[in-house]
Every structure is written in C-alpha cells, then in structure tokens.
Amino acid sequence: MSYLFHTTHMTRRSLLGTIAATSALVMLHPFAARAQANQAHLRLMETTDIHVHVMPYDYYGDKPNDTLGLARTASIINAIRAEAGNSMLIDNGDFLQGNPLGDYMAYERGMKEGDVHPVVKAMNVIGYDAGTLGNHEFNYGLDFMFKALAGAKFPYVCANLTKGQLAANARNDELFLKPYVIVEKQIRDGSGATSPIKVGFIGFVPPQIMVWDAKNLEGKAQTRDIVDAAKAWVPLMKEEGADIIIALSHSGIDGTGQSDRMENASLYLAGVQGIDAVFTGHQHLVFPGPKDFEGIAGADAKKGTLMGKPAVMAGFWGSHMGLIDLLIEKDGAGWKIVDFTSEARPIYHRDENRKIIADVKDKPDVVAAVKEEHEATLAYVRRPVGKSSAPLYSYFALVADDPSVQIVSNAQTWYVKDLLKEGQYKDYPVLSAAAPFKAGGRGGADYFTDVAAGDIAIKNVADLYLYPNTVQAVLITGAQVKNWLEMSAGMFNQVAPGTKDAPLLSTSFPSYNYDVIDGVTYQIDLSQPARFDKDGKLVNADAHRIVALSFDGKPIDPSQKFVVATNNYRAGGGGKFPDIAGDKVILVAPDTNRDVLVRYIMDQGTINPSADANWSFKPMPGATAVFESGPKGRQYLADVKGAKIEDAGEGAEGFAKFRLVL
Predict the structure, then answer these.
(1) Which candidate, 18, 621, 71, places its Cα nearest to that of 374?
(2) Residues 489/513, Cβ–Cβ less than 8 Å
(3) With contact defined as beta carbons under 8 Å apart, do 360 and 75 qualify?
(4) What is the mean predicted confidence (pLDDT) over 97-117?
C-alpha cells in the first residue's frame, strides 16, 4: 500500500455540517470533488467512548448538556456523509457503561434475551458498519455484554480477547468474537461508475481488562498483546482479499516505547505492516489537534498520522466525530491509497465569552429510539435515599480534604469494619482510600460534584461515585501506606520555596488516581520531587513528599499492619500503585462501592459530609501555587478546611483560576 505524504489537516468547524444538515448546501470534501475515473473518495467515520451518552443530558446534574450525546453527533452524520463520495461508520468501544442510563439498564431493568439496549437501539438507527469493544463493556459482566451485543445490526470484532488461556499461536486462540470482518462495499468513482472494494476492520481491547474487571473475567477470559494479535491476523486479512485494513483500536497513543501488553498501543499498532489507518480512543482526548499529543515521535498531531498512517481519536461522550478521508485509486484488481486527511469534528464550540454554543441539534429518530429508557432513567435517578446536613462538592478535592471524598471514605470504613468484625482481621485498624472522580480536567469546567444540603437522590450518589467498582480491602504495612500516599502525591508539580503562582497540578496525572487515605493524618511537602512517576516507577528514591504521617496521634509504625478499604480497580493493581496488587487482598465484597454509599446514607438517615482535614500541604512561607477549578467553586471558598485558597481570576475554557497560599 503506497501513500503520498502531502496530506493537510482539515480545520473546518462543525458549523459547516450544521449548515449542510439544515439546507441544500453541501461542501464536498476535496477528494470527492477531484476524484478521477479510476479514483474514489472513501470517508471513514468514528464515534468512540460514548459511555451510554445517547441523549445530550447530564443525569447527575439533571439538566441538558450541549457538549455531549450521540443524538447530537448523529445529527451531523447525514451531512458528513453528503460531503463524501462514499462513507462507512464505526464505533470504537466504551459504549455500554458510564452514566446512570447504563446503570439503570444493568441494575434496575436488566436485559432479557431479545431485549435491545438503548445505546444499541440508537446505533442501529444511525447505521454502523462495524464496532469493537472497549474496557468498560466488561463492567457489568460477560452475560450482560453479550445480550447487549446481540441487539446490534452490525458486526463486532475483537482480535485479542480469548476464551481461557492463550494458544501458542494467536491464530489458534479461541476468541469470543470474530477477530475481523471484511465488508464488501460498492463505491462510486469520479466518473460515476460503481465497483466493489473490500474494507477490513480488526478490533482490539486493552489487555488490562484482566486487572480492571478480574471479578468478571478471571477464569473465563484472557487477553493478548494488541500488536502481537495484529501481526497474526492482518496478513490473513490480506490473504482474504482486503483492499484496505482499518484498525479499531480501543487503545490510546503512548510514545514512551513499545512494551508487552501495552495499554495505549495505537502508535505501535499503526506500525504493523498491512494496517492502513487507525481509529483510536480510550484516553478521552482529541487527535489530530493542537495540544494533546504534540511532541510524540511517530505521531503528527497536526496532520493526524501515526507512523505516517492516517489516524483519529474523537474525544468522548459524542463530543466529536472522527473522520479519516481516503483518496483511493484502482491498482489492478484492487485499490491503493494515494492521499488522506484526518479530522476530529466537534459538536460544540465556545464563543468569545466562553459560553458553550451547540453546533448541532438532536437527531429526532435517535431521541425517539431511547425515549422510554431515558424517561425511566430520570425517574430512577431522582429517587431519594436520605439527606445531607451540608453541601457535597468536589471543586477543591485535589487541593484540600474534601466532603465528596470524605463521605465515600466514611461509607467504605463503615461497611468494611462491619464485614470484618468477627473474623481474623477484626483487630486490625481500618483505613479507607478514596479518590475524586469528578474534578474538572478533560470533563470541563462543569465536571464537578455539587449537591446542595437536603435530600440526596440516587443521581447524587452516582455523581459521587461514577464507576460500578466493587469494594475490596487489602492488608498492608505502615510503610506501604506511606508509599500509597507518595504515589498519590504525584498529582502535584514540585514547587520551589518562595515561588509565586507556580502551576500546582500535573496535567498527566488522572484525578481518579489521587487517593486520599482516611484514618491517618499527613502533610504533603511540595518542595520535594515526586517519589514515583505516574506508572508507579521509583524515580526519586531520596524524595519523601509525605511527612508527619501519623496514626492515632503518633508517627506511623512502618511495620504495623493496616486494612485499607478501597475498590477492585485499585486493589487489583489499577493505577500501578507500588506494592498494591491482588496478593494483598483480604476481602472481596459482593457489593459495589456505590451501593455501599446508598446503604450508608439510608442507615444514617442524615449524613454529615464535612471533611475532617486529615491531610494538608506542608507550609512554605512566601510560596503560592495556582490551579483551575469550576467557577461555581467560588461560593465554597470560606468552607475549605486545611488550606487557604483565593480567587485568582479567570482560567481557560470556562474554568476559574484559584491560588493556594502555601
């Protein structure tokens, strides 16, 4: 397969798609306009990481949201198809879990044989050609996943998910799904004549699902390295006549070097001979684009190429439509690619006042397809379970002890202590580790928990704990507790004494890995470098950010044993925290952390979520640091415990800027 590398990155706004959708005006892609008699334009379209966001609705906030929703993305698909000579549409995984609609279907309503899941209903209306699995498809178990997949009117493929152990040769693996599908499509060339093309789609899931969903997969499934699986199956696709091979990679872009069973392997997948284009996802970022992947060798964030081949990552929750446009040319009996462009087209933008402006409207037939389940979900999430004596918010969860994290820890401690009260671990002190899930970042300036005092409904509980994790507990030493906290402290940049307005938060460190451990007290010394990197590797052996770590009012004993309540993701090794893995687990509970939170609130009747300020930053007189949070956080500044925070003006992309006085 040959390429001409004079590709340009398209920069047209989705506004063009809106115009096309609402009038007779259609702007053809240059390939469609210039294709000759032996050439054709083929547009490949991607949705990825939908996470059950069919409707443009925030179930947690119980209000519409113009930044998300497959019903919105779908409304520009007809226009996007009209711009092209020929088109195909795929989904790149993580469609089944991620908001209360998904939880309602899994926990409240359930799936009987023959039922069609609402997100699959929506996809069937839109008309997909193929799809692959993401890691979150497994959160509700294999049976639920396969019932959902059964309703799809298009094929799902995954080349690296096996039943049981791996075979000696990847082609002998017993797979749950077909590794690939070759779709024969009639395409129209520049002269108007039609002829067939065979487009192969091969799918991949992160191998780490065996850690993240061990409770659902252990003993039932196994995963193979993404690149190894591709090297086995892609040549067979060529042998079977695929003219063009497209990788559906629910895996992100990581340029740190290829490694076995790599989570974000799309860059190296693109290097596999025979693959012509790569759809990526999983990281909830945008490629091509101006900021997320600049400086990675082998990745051109302007042109939209990985290893010189066209690639795209289309955001998350329906925020973008990923487009790879190919100019293809007859090459004997087959086709070759002679040019390409890549684009991630958004469904909204911000005006000069930073106000969100929707560039698209709902697609009525998609809305109609999920109307019943959407309304049932609204009733489900509005159901009250108790009361709170104070507001619950996460605007400052990364910089001070926080009520939204505190209440989760309170519930976990209450639950685990009760389960262990009669057994062999009854005399061990119980700590609790919890992280803020909604802390802005990629989710935007409104992506924070904000629950008023008063009634607490299921939507509020789901807002406090986004994921269907289950409770687990580990038995570790005081020294390992300290390293757990050292790993969490990688959230922060180093701040030199006396520095003014240093950037506080590391943009590469996810908030769900910022664990606060309750039951001990400690300070974080920002003058020290991080002891571990984001992958848990010891990078500064002499650094100790965690200081004054105490239990029961005394310095912690490094050899003392503690039970730490957490979730299955962290206990199983998720986040690569040092020494925290399955061999430390002493309790595998049957309940989700979210269900435990509901039970705790119901047991208490009225909860008091006030943070106990068990951690803070070590004072650094004369130094300040800045960070961004939601502008609504300003109303809670006076309530923050253990930290002095000031309003520092406006941030970017709708955020507010705040100053931490150290």
Answers:
(1) 71
(2) no
(3) yes
(4) 91
Q: Which domains does the chain have, with CATH numbers?
A: 15-376 (3.60.21.10), 389-497+510-611 (3.90.780.10)
Q: Is the separation of the CB atoms in 322 and 313 below 8 Å?
A: yes
The number of residues making up the chain comes to 662
CA-to-CA distance for 357 and 347, rounded, in angstroms? 9
Cis peptide bond prior to 30, omega within 30° of 0: no
The token pair at 34 is 């210039």
Q: How distant is the alpha carbon of residue 297 from its chain centre?
A: 24
- Let me know: does 365 contact 121? Beta carbons within 8 Å: no
Query: Do residues 191 and 35 touch, judged by C-beta distance below 8 A?
Result: no
Distances (CA, A) of 402 to 464, 609, 636: 12, 9, 11
CB burial readout 104-134, b (16+ within 10 A) else e: bbbeebebeeebbbbbbbbbbbbebbbbbbb
Q: What are the pLDDT digits (tens) for 290-346? A: 888 989 999 999 999 999 999 999 999 999 999 999 999 998 889 999 999 999 999
Tell me the two tokens of residue 47.
């949705």
Enumerate residues 6+ apart whose C-beta is below 8 A from 338.
Answer: 2, 3, 4, 39, 327, 328, 329
Distance (Å, rounded) from C-alpha 95 to C-alpha 110? 17
* Dist. CA 537–CA 519, nearest whole Å: 26
Longest dimension (CA), the chain: 82
Question: Closest by alpha carbon to 155, among 223, 201, 88, 204?
Answer: 201
Q: In the Cβ-directed half-sphere of 276, how many Cα atoms lie within 13 Å? A: 30
For 135-166, the pLDDT digits (tens) are 999 989 999 999 999 999 999 999 999 998 99
Which residues 6+ apart lie within 8 Å of 13 measured at CB? 345, 346, 349, 359
Q: What is the mean pLDDT of residues 106-122?
A: 94
- pTM as predicted: 0.75
pLDDT tens per residue across span 68-86 = 999 999 888 878 888 887 9
- Please identify which residue in the block is written with the tokens 């964030």: 301
Helix (H, G, I), strand (E, B) or coil at 147: helix
Q: Which long-range contacts (CB under 8 A, 24 or more apart) does 490-493 make?
A: 490/530, 490/531, 490/532, 490/533, 490/534, 491/398, 492/524, 492/526, 492/530, 492/545, 493/526, 493/625
DSSP state letters, 288-353: SSSSSSTT-TTEETTTTEETTEEEEEE-STTSEEEEEEEEEEEETTEEEEEEEEEEEEESEEE-TT
Matching residue, tokens 């430390």: 584
Contacts of 175 (CB under 8 A, 6+ apart): 158, 159, 161, 162, 163
415 touches 405 (CB < 8 A): no
Give burial (CB, 10 Å; 0-12/13-18/19+) of 395. buried
Q: How many CA atoms lie within 13 A of 612 on its CB side?
A: 14
The token duo for 593 is 């952390």
What pLDDT band is residue 579 in, cutting at 50, 70 and 90? very high
